[in-house]
């Protein structure tokens, strides 16, 4: 039986890409009985009489999966934030990074709309670029008119499945349209009254872009740390992981403990104090979340 990848799920149909052709398939009845839902990104075995009449027979084991957006087998996340309209939000960026790190995805940070900001803000964005690159992240400053920056984004997409994440209005669909004008994805102007964009993307779909597959999604609609335990949080800050073996206490939470290597590095300025404050903010959030039964 042939295998393919689900690139779209809509109204009970699954669209499976196999050797350049997309087959419209339904899931087998026993999937429902076993409470298995095929996801966009799944590698599946299928059979099809025609391109409109196929059935998914089995789903290969997933390397990872997300609930919101519902997608599986992602290699990396393109986290798009903007220099303006909406304003750059480092706390939100760190929240996205934690969620992505928790799924063991490779994050790539894109700061968009660099053509729409003043000189002072350009300097500030470059300072943030330095902070995140020092941690080891790839940071791309871009605008939809900057061909060199768009080429750099494309080079990261080849042969990978990428989810594109970021708050509404930061220009996710605009960037994809600039890389591949044939996509013609919906974009929306910022709603001035709300100061944020409207959700224009309605379902998860994988698009073939620059030799890879990119998910244009309704975004990470859940940005809460519902599945993240307190002892896992510091693992999502690579600069903490680098020094935490030097903490006096095993399992140090880098909060109120004495002789903490992370706090020492923050005092020395080698770890960003702002990132550390965001970490403490997330610690409190996890401690205070309501228990689930």
From TrEMBL:
Residues 63-223 form the CP-type G domain. Its EC number is 3.6.1.-. Its cofactor is Zn(2+). Keywords: Cytoplasm, GTP-binding, Hydrolase, Metal-binding, Nucleotide-binding, Ribosome biogenesis, RNA-binding, rRNA-binding, Zinc. Binds 1 zinc ion per subunit. GTP binds at residues 112-115, 166-174. It holds the Pfam family RsgA_N. Residues 72-221 form the EngC GTPase domain. Zn(2+) binds at residues 247, 252, 254, 260. One of several proteins that assist in the late maturation steps of the functional core of the 30S ribosomal subunit. Helps release RbfA from mature subunits. May play a role in the assembly of ribosomal proteins into the subunit. Circularly permuted GTPase that catalyzes slow GTP hydrolysis, GTPase activity is stimulated by the 30S ribosomal subunit. Belongs to the TRAFAC class YlqF/YawG GTPase family. RsgA subfamily. Monomer. Associates with 30S ribosomal subunit, binds 16S rRNA. This is Small ribosomal subunit biogenesis GTPase RsgA. It comes from Halobacillus campisalis. The gene is rsgA.
